[in-house]
Amino acid sequence: MLHLPRASPTSFGTSADTGPPPHPTVTVDGPGEIAVGQEFDVTVRLASDIGISRLRGQVRFDSAALQLLSATAGDVVPASAGSPTVDAKSGGAQMDVVASDDPIQGEGSLMLLHFKALAARPASSIAAQISAMAPSGAAMANAASQPLAVAIKP
């Protein structure tokens, strides 16, 4: 009979863990409430303890309520990736990062977005997702954020 050691409860993703999660996660941080005409910043954050050599980050938002004024790569993007640009499209933005020599790993900002509120809304959502490839070339699971709901007051 084979006896395996029992895992302790703290070994499975409890608050006792201090490092980033084992698979990439993405979150969106920003204000909960703004006024029409106001400019504000939103940060798309990435956490991964697996090296990511290729990544596509995408952000979706209501272009009738929000205008994307600027978007830049965040601090988790290594210098070896150059200066990846964030392509703004109606209702979204996309950034492709290739970091083969120095994979993306750890926690930090992936994209820094600067918006202007155009129209009043009880809740306007801003959501992000990433698609990542490991240094080996293997596809990694996509990760999507919980949407950030921003109330836009008249």
Throw out a few tags for this protein.
11 strands; 7-stranded mixed sheet; disordered N terminus; Immunoglobulin-like; 154 residues; mainly beta; 4-stranded antiparallel sheet
Question: Care to describe what's here?
Answer:
Strands 2, 4, 6, 7, 9, 10 and 11 form a 7-stranded mixed beta sheet that branches. A 4-stranded antiparallel beta sheet has the order 1-3-8-5, with no helix packed on it. Strand 6 (86-89) and strand 7 form a beta hairpin. It is elongated. It has no helices and 11 strands. The protein has strands at 25-29, 33-35, 39-52, 54-61, 66-73, 86-89, 92-98, 104-117, 121-133, 143-144, 148-153. The chain has a single domain (20-135), classed as Immunoglobulin-like (Sandwich). By secondary structure, the protein is an all-beta fold.
Arithmetic mean of pLDDT: 86
**Cα distance spanning the termini:** 70 Å
CATH topology: Immunoglobulin-like
CATH architecture: Sandwich
Helix content: under 10%
Describe the secondary-structure layout.
Elements: E1 25-29, E2 33-35, E3 39-52, E4 54-61, E5 66-73, E6 86-89, E7 92-98, E8 104-117, E9 121-133, E10 143-144, E11 148-153
Task: Give the structure's gist in a few sentences.
By secondary structure, the chain is mainly β.
